[in-house]
Design brief:
Length: about 150
C-alpha cells in the first residue's frame, strides 16, 4: 500500500466510519512477504499484554479508539529483518498506532527496553512514518508511554 493509498483509506474511514473497508485493506497489507505463515489474531498474550488488551478494550468502549488487534502483522525492512508490534490501534481520526508493550521492573524502578528492541522501534518509526509508534508499560496501575 502506497502512502497516497494509506491516506485515502484514512480519509474514507474518518469520513464514513467505514470499518469494514479498513479491515479488508488491513488484511491486504498484512499478508507476509516470502510466503511466511500468518500468526492468528488471537495469539496467546503474556500477562502484561493481556492487561493492556483489557485497557484497549476499555478505550474502545469509551470511544477513544475504534479498533485494535494484537500481533496483527510484521513489517519487513530491506535487509530482511522484521518488526512485529504487540498491538495495532486506530483512533477516532483514523490514525494507525503501532504499540509495543514493555515490562516495568518495580525493584529496579525502570522499564525494560533492550538496545535491539529500541533500535527496531526507532527504525520502524522512521521507515514507516505514516504509522504512529509507541512503547507502553504499566507502572503502579497506570499505563505510561514513550512515543517515537
Amino acid at each position: 500500500m502506497t502512502e497516497a493509498e494509506a491516506r485515502a483509506l484514512q480519509e474514507r474511514v474518518t469520513a464514513n466510519k467505514d470499518l469494514k473497508a479498513f479491515e479488508a485493506a488491513f488484511k491486504a497489507i498484512s499478508i507476509k512477504a516470502k510466503g511466511k505463515t500468518e500468526k492468528p489474531l488471537n495469539e496467546k498474550l503474556n500477562k502484561t499484554e493481556a492487561r493492556y488488551a483489557k485497557h484497549l478494550e476499555r478505550l474502545k468502549l469509551a470511544g477513544e479508539i475504534l479498533w485494535w488487534r494484537s500481533h496483527a502483522f510484521g513489517l519487513y525492512f530491506e535487509d530482511g529483518t522484521r518488526y512485529t508490534c504487540d498491538f495495532v490501534t486506530m483512533d477516532k481520526a483514523g490514525s494507525i498506532t503501532l504499540i509495543d508493550v514493555k515490562a516495568y521492573y518495580k525493584n529496579q524502578k525502570k522499564v525494560h527496553i533492550d538496545t535491539a528492541s529500541m533500535i527496531r522501534m526507532k527504525r520502524t518509526a522512521h521507515e514507516y512514518y505514516f504509522f504512529s509508534m509507541k512503547a507502553v508499560w504499566e507502572k503502579d496501575g497506570v499505563w505510561e508511554e514513550m512515543t517515537f
